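SAMPLE LOG
Freezer: B-3
Tube label: C17
Construct: single chain, 84 aa
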Amino acid sequence: MARSLIENLTQEWKPEQYTDAYREALLEMVERKVAGEEIEVIPEPEEAPKVVDLMDALKASVEATKKKAPAKKKPAAKKKAAAS
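STRUCTURE (predicted):
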């Protein structure tokens, strides 16, 4: 099931689709600190963890990707030449 999920989600790597938001935020904070601004860190409140049934989640993921994945084409059957 896991392999099926991975195969359904596999696609060509396009690095331009991704950004490093953490690095950008860190550089912005450093620039503000260099400019003399006070940096205030506000901790985020912790939420209670949600318990998830991993097998149900995996099954749902496989089903969701099956609907999105294009159907794989089967190779055309070879015709046998008639003997003369």
